[in-house]
Every structure is written in C-alpha cells, then in structure tokens.
Amino acid sequence: MKRAVIVGAGIAGLATALRLEQDGWRTVVVERAPARRSSGYLVNLIGPGYDAAERLGLLPALAAHDLGLFTTVLVRDDGRAKFAVPSAVAEAALGQRALSVFRGDLESTLFDAVGGRAEIRFGTTVTSVDQDADRVRVVLSDGTTEHADLLVGADGVHSATRTAVFGAGFRVDLPYLVGAFPLAHPVAGVPESSATTFIGPGRTAALVNLGPQRSSAFFTYRCPDPVADLGRGPVDALGAAFGDLGGGVPDALRHLEKDPAGAYFDAVSQVVMPQWSTGRVVLLGDAAWCVTLFAGHGAALALAGADQLGAALARHGDDIPAALTGWEAALRPEATKRQALARRGMLQYAPPSRFHVWMSDLTIRAITLPGIRGLVRRGIERANR
Predict the structure, then answer these.
(1) Are 188 and 248 in contact, with CB atoms under 8 Å apart?
(2) CA 268 centroid distance within chain
(3) CATH number of the domain at 173-268+351-383, out of 1.10.287.3510, 2.40.30.10, 3.30.9.30, 3.30.540.10?
(4) pTM of the entire predicted model
(5) Which sequence spans correspond to the domains of the chain?
(6) Tell me: the pLDDT tens digits for 203-257?
(7) DSSP string across 63-100
(8) What tens digit of pLDDT does each residue of 108-142 get?
C-alpha cells in the first residue's frame, strides 16, 4: 500500500487525502493549527471544480449547503442603492453545473468525507524532509518520522513546505488586503436573500444576507503597506479603511469587533513557480499556484488539482515523478490563466479612480440586459472547458 504525507488540512489537503484514500493509499494529514478552522467567504464550484466534487462523491453533502442564487444590489457609500443585479445574471454566468457554498462548509464536508479514512494530526508541523529515489522521509514535530512514497505540500500561500523544499522567493505580494468573516445573523441595511456591494476607488465591501448562520462580510482594499495593516489586526485595519461607509457596513464591523479571531484577514499574494514538484515532493493548491480571491477559482482549482493528481498517480503506477510531471503539464495552463484573470480582476475589486468605478458600473449594467446574459453564459462556458 502506498503512503502519502499531506501537509495542510484545508480544501487542497483534505481533497488530496480523500482522492488518494479512495485509490487505496494510506494518508497522514498534518496541520499546524490546533483545531479545524473555518472562514465565511463564499466560493463557487464550477467547471473542473464542480466535476472534481462530483467524482469525489461530495455533491450530495454539498447540496445541503448550497446557497443558491440571490440578487446583488450595488450601493453608494451611504448604503443607498444604485441598481440591482438580478439572480438570473448569476445563473447565466455560473450555469447549471454550479454550487455556491461558504468555504467553511466545503472544508467541513471534506473533513467528514475523509473521517475514518485518513489520519489527521492537528498542532503538528514538518521538521525536516529528505528523499531518495524510493522514499521520502518526513520528520514531524510530534517526534515521529514518516517514510512515505509521496509528500504533498498543501499548506497554503505561506507554505512552509515550499520554503523548506524549494526555497524562498516564489510568493509575489500585491498591495491589497482581504478581510472576510461569517455573520451570526444578518446585518441591518441588507435586504433578505440578497447581497449589497459597495465598489469605490481602491476598495470593495460586500455583505451577504441569506439568514442566520448563512450571512457573511467580505472586504478588500488597496494598501500601500500591507505588513503594517496586518500588524494592526482586522478590527483596526478594516475599521480605518471602511468606517466611513453606511448601509450594513457599520453593523458588520461591530460583528467583527465581537469575534476578530473568526475573521480571515491577510495580504493578497500569488505564487509563481517554474515547477511544482521535485522527486517525490509536490505542492498543490495555493502553496503552488495561489491565484488570489480576485480570480474566484481558488477552491475549484484545489479540488480539481487534487482529483487530477490522483488520476495521474493511478495512470503512472510506481513512477511517481513521471505522474507529477504529467499532472503539472495538464493543470498549469489553467492555473496560469486564472492568475492572469486575477491580476485584471484587481481593477474590478479595487478600481484606481472614480472613472474606473463609473466604467465598471456601466459594464455591470450592460450584463444585466437579457440579450447580454446569453453572451456572458457562453463566454464563461468556453472559459471553463
């Protein structure tokens, strides 16, 4: 029986463990955090990500968490509505084979699916890695040593596995920060079963109201010194960047003050590497190709990458380096495309001027026209093939 050590118990790591366990591997998942973490931002599973969720057997469980389609209202800085984007536009953009879920629900579904299969060790890190042609030796912080056929680094954009095995210098830091957190109950100023989005020069604030335990806040803004703002923490940093806004934003920020530990708050970075594997060590998900939240396909790519990795390993049998090479050659074009789309998407989430905001409004208004929706749907379908 082949053995794999997987570093990271997020979407990429758990999906990899699930796929390999389904293929008869024995897996050990190690996670630095002392317990499971969750975050409240919404992810869309479309194209290869939806296909991977289907093949992994996740769709029945995920269907219970599907947020469905909802109207989005673009608002001014005081919360007054500009115009609405009906749910039919999202339906045209996403298509029939699509799911919208909170990231935490996707992670929980994966964790439940892996439960009883993989061994998961929280509060554990990798101390050292050595490999030869036949095995990879992984020393862990709990004092144990694992001898495995494969080591998968799925430990995110700040991957310690990437630094230990490949060295530093592959993370490209961008001048933006992102904050996202769940809302225990809907905030004032956001209509039921809808979302409000404020887009202004250099920043976006989006609030989703789908009922208790199904609502969330998302903020992103351009920042000249992300390290300094990260040091301030989400309450102070997001309060300074968005405290002047009206609508539901003040209420959302008060939610944040009560539970800052439940927020995802980080700088925006991409990872650009000439190769994702060496010998029997491979990086997967944000550790290898982080596309950023601006691309909107991070979770889908993580699922697809894990599923396709399992398929490549099954095809190549004992030749693991060849499997990793073939897997990367097939997946890299999609990751590269999504990274490029994310860099362009920064203009959408953090427009550089009021003129860009105005142009964005015109574009979004045009997309709401019935005749344009079909063009949008067909364009996205081509992009996701």
Answers:
(1) yes
(2) 12
(3) 3.30.9.30
(4) 0.91
(5) 3-67+99-172+271-346, 173-268+351-383
(6) 999 999 988 888 999 999 999 999 999 999 999 999 999 999 999 999 999 999 9
(7) HTT-----EEEEE-TTS-EEEEE-HHHHHHHH-SSEEE
(8) 999 999 988 999 999 999 999 999 999 999 999 99
